[in-house]
Specification:
about 190 residues, Rossmann fold, about 15% strand
């Protein structure tokens, strides 16, 4: 199986995330794109209730695409959600053709050398990097350090989860930023209000 994973906090998942996954599916020929909501993101605040909400929102957002799948692997591993440990588990669980591919934005990729077991991680995944803003990016140093990656040509879509949460606090519309299912889930559960 040619597997591409899309790990993230997804707090909440928005249309730019879905566009990225659709772009990769269309241009790289994977059997599936696996969304992996982080259980306990190492660099972000952790709330057990919010973990479940983030997972449910991803599930709602991707349910109409049969090539999209959600994984609760990081919920089962518990502890902090380290990509290296997650990827090792995926290799145990599935018959993977080649290296697992890993969708990531330039903001996160620029910090990759600070990640847990980064020297081991770079040997077992290939990164598909989305440019998060319209600035020129240079990751030549990462190439020299043995990270395998390709930049995508998808135009930057300016949506951030932080901005989305702020819009909800300010009672601004979010219809064009998230799917109808995610919007309804946020309203029904009163998320991001406080």
């Amino acid at each position: 199986m040619k597997l591409c994973i899309f790990p993230g906090t997804f707090n909440p998942i928005h249309r730019a995330h879905l566009k990225m996954a659709e772009y990769v599916l269309k241009n790289y020929g994977f059997d599936k794109i696996m969304f992996i909501p982080a259980y306990r993101p190492p660099h972000k605040d952790y709330s057990p209730d919010m973990c479940l909400h983030r997972y449910n929102m991803v599930k709602e957002a991707i349910k109409y695409n049969p090539k999209f799948e959600i994984s609760d692997i990081e919920f089962k591993l518990e502890g902090k959600s380290y990509s290296y440990l997650t990827v090792l588990e995926l290799y145990k669980k599935y018959n993977i053709d080649g290296n697992i591919k890993f969708i990531i934005g330039t903001d996160a990729f620029s910090q990759i050398k600070t990640w847990y077991e980064t020297d081991k991680l770079k040997k077992i995944v290939d990164f598909i990097v989305f440019i998060r803003d319209n600035k020129t990016v240079n990751f030549e140093n990462l190439k020299l350090d043995g990270y395998n990656f390709k930049f995508t040509n998808m135009p930057f879509t300016d949506i951030s989860s932080t901005e989305l949460r702020q819009r909800i606090v300010e009672n601004k519309p979010i219809d064009n930023l998230v799917t109808e299912e995610v919007k309804e889930y946020i309203i029904k559960n009163g998320l991001y209000r406080n």
